[in-house]
Design brief:
Helix content is 33%, strand content 19%. The protein is of the alpha+beta class. The chain has one domain: Sandwich (Jelly Rolls). The chain has an eight-stranded mixed β-sheet. A four-stranded antiparallel β-sheet has the order 6-11-8-9, with no helix packed on it. The longest helix has 26 residues. It binds N-oxalylglycine (OGA) and nickel (II) ion. The site of N-oxalylglycine has 12 residues, from strand 5, strand 7, strand 11 and strand 12.
């Protein structure tokens, strides 16, 4: 069924590059980007922020901090994670350089809503939605079979492929280490979460570099509308410009840039395998009037074909399944069709599993 849906997906209208729009020097925000006032980013709390976990001194107090972050926030930052600062800087450089290429060059990589690989400016094919103030480039990192000899990766700047390959591999290793920490925290054997997501050779990783140009009326727009990430979890390296916000118990909080830190966002599949013990966090991005912003995002995803459901050991302990099983390929088709839809995806998951999936056709 998934292939039927894929073959009919196309963008519902011509794609407007946000960078191009911003470069016209416009003074007011075009209506397509204006959010209702109850959705804008101005209202957020700065009295709290997600915990910062030091992985170099990973003692009991750090374990407790990380555990409560996963359960209460669904997000934390990691420092001393082992990825060299020079590599972070060069990954940021090559990614930024891509967006500095002439538009004729960038649009050669224009993406489509079936694979999403390439240069994009929207998510979902629903017509007349409010648009995000964001351009991005998306491609696979793993499994290696999915990168198809890097065909979809930028050829420029010339050191892009080498740098992002190395960056992706280092982040992937960190993700495996985090998965073991999560397994232990949930009282599961080491390696069991990686196994449940498809094992080292089956799991996926994707790279998305986000570019948020300066925005003429930033208080009316969002860089990315509120959403949860569909995969297992996400590692974000943000530049020094604030913008990422997370929702905790109905209140939005800023995730302040911490030098050389990665932000770890727990996502839907981790909430599902943990049977709801961990939280997939709602997040969004604010944009700026006087500064552009970049973020480098690695999504760690399950094997697309494997059925993912709550871990049996946790179901036994808790006495019930909170979520039913679905493969990640089936799951992400909802998002690719309907666009990001906040928490509704996880919330309805139990009821939409199985036959009802056909309703999105
Ligand atoms: C994303 C995302 C946040 C950011 O790409 O899914 O949430 O800070 N990005 O750009
Ligand atoms: Ni996200």
């Amino acid at each position: 069924m998934a292939s039927n849906i894929s073959s009919v997906l196309e963008w519902p209208e011509p794609i407007q590059r946000v960078q191009e729009l911003a470069n016209t020097g416009l003074k007011t925000l075009p209506p397509r980007y204006i959010r209702p006032t109850n959705q804008v980013s101005a209202n957020f709390d700065t009295t709290q922020a997600p915990p910062v976990v030091d992985l170099s001194s990973f003692d009991q107090s750090m374990k407790d901090l990380l555990s409560s972050a996963c359960k209460e926030w669904g997000v934390f930052q990691v420092v001393n994670h082992g990825i060299p600062r020079e590599l972070l800087a060069s990954a940021m450089d090559v990614s930024r350089s891509f967006f500095e290429l002439p538009m004729e060059e960038k649009v050669k990589y224009a993406n489509d809503p079936v694979s999403y690989e390439g240069y994009g400016s929207r998510i979902g094919v629903k017509k007349d939605i409010i648009l995000d103030w964001n351009d991005y480039f998306f491609h696979h990192l793993r499994p290696f079979s999915a990168t198809k000899d890097y065909q979809k990766w930028p050829l420029q700047p010339v050191d892009y492929r080498k740098t992002i390959n190395e960056y992706g591999e280092r982040v992937f290793s960190l993700c495996k280490r985090l998965l073991d920490i999560f397994s232990e925290d949930l009282g599961l054997p080491r390696g069991s979460l990686l196994e449940s997501f498809g094992g080292e050779d089956g799991v996926g990783a994707c790279y998305r570099m986000n570019y948020y140009p300066k925005c003429p009326q930033p208080e009316l727009a969002l860089g990315l509308a509120p959403h949860t990430d569909p995969g297992c979890f996400t590692a974000i390296f943000q530049d020094q410009v604030s913008g990422l916000q997370v929702n905790k118990d109905g209140v939005w909080f800023n995730v302040p840039p911490v030098k050389d830190a990665l932000v770890i966002i727990l996502a839907d599949q981790l909430e599902i395998v943990s049977n709801g013990i961990y939280k997939s966090v709602d997040h969004r991005t604010a944009v700026n009037g006087d500064k552009e912003r970049m973020s480098l995002v690695v999504f760690f995803n399950p094997d697309g074909n494997k059925k993912i459901g709550p871990m049996e050991a946790l179901v036994e302990k808790m006495g019930s399944h909170v979520y039913s099983e679905m493969s990640f390929n089936e799951y992400r088709m909802f998002i690719r069709t309907l666009g990001v839809a906040g928490r509704t995806i996880v919330a309805t998951r139990f009821t939409i599993a199985g036959g009802a999936a056909g309703t999105i056709q």
